[in-house]
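Consortium newsletter contribution from the modelling node. Members have asked for a concrete example of what our holo predictions look like. Here is one, prepared for the guanosine-5'-diphosphate complex that several groups have been discussing at recent meetings.
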Amino acid sequence: EESKVICAGCGVSIQSESKNDLGYAPPSALKRDVIICQRCFRLTHYNEVQDVSLTDDDFLKILNGLGQKKALIVKIVDIFDFTGSWLPGLHRFVGGNDVLLVGNKVDLLPKSLNHNRLINWMKKSSKDLGLKPLDVLLMSAEKAIGIETVASEIDRLRNGRDVYIVGCTNVGKSTFINQMIKTFGGDTEQLITTSHFPGTTLDMIDIPLDDGSALYDTPGIINHHQMAHHIDKQELKVITPKKEIKPMVFQLNEEQTLFFGGLGRFDFVRGERTSFTCYFSNELNIHRTKREKADDLYKNHLGELLTPPGAEDKDSLPPLEKHTFRIKDKKVDIVFSGLGWVTVNGTNIEVEGYAPKGVQVMIRESLI
Ligand code: GDP
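And here is the predicted structure:
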């Protein structure tokens, strides 16, 4: 049998034939001591997410396998993209297994935000989506905030069972695993071995735990509801916050519109003059205009004034879809999945949120 080369980063089988497929590494990379696939190479060296053709089918096979094992499932979501990074079928596949839900990237939240409210919202949303996690925690894998709590919760809840880390692409799974190894592990090469998941082309990273059980890093899935799916890597950098978000306040009269690049639109349809606080990546351009001019502006200036998307991508972006919200007297957030949110503090207000078709816009009680 031909010996199999495995990526030291994500655990997939390395191949040099097909550039756009999972596990591609150029032939020159195969001569190195530590071999990683091009996707992991880009991620670590350029902080770039590369799409690979991981099919939903492969992922479903993995999920199916999880239901047949006794395990603790640790599901990681990006708190800036809760619904976008949700794995819709998970609850049907985990069987009777317990799930610990972890919201990552907490370092990006403004200081004013109440973590308990965020946790409560995550609990409620999970329930609405059909999943009842044993516990919900927040962390920053990158800044090592909350890692020890997550680790001790995993240890407490797993009861000697194996642990599977699941999450869609870009939620910070690899960063988390690396952080765990840094915090608790010794020699990485000794710690990580990869194990083949039966019936799939994908491999999982297997980190042995003290008592002979294992921590498995499953491959991420590209979720087609993610905003990230509609734009290229450069543009993803613009919409992904890198630092703590600085809220931007806009005083608007009715019949005014805000564009978030060309990926989101917020219309103040009806109500008294109100202040709207926008929580988006500090690099994303917010453009204010009259509502009556908004359609034409979008038609004529998408990809230039209203960017991202860039000029090359604008034609492949699905059309914006409208979601209408009526607000009585509660302080609420209008959430644009994968992009950010607008906090509305007013009474008897009607607003509209637009996002590319397939990307969610929803309302929640304000987190501030
Ligand atoms: P994976 O695809 O789920 O394995 O995600 P990665 O670990 O590769 O992370 C995806 C992106 O999110 C990278 O650009 C990371 O630097 C970033 N990231 C991961 N964890 C955090 C975090 O806690 N805070 C912030 N601000 N960024 C993070």
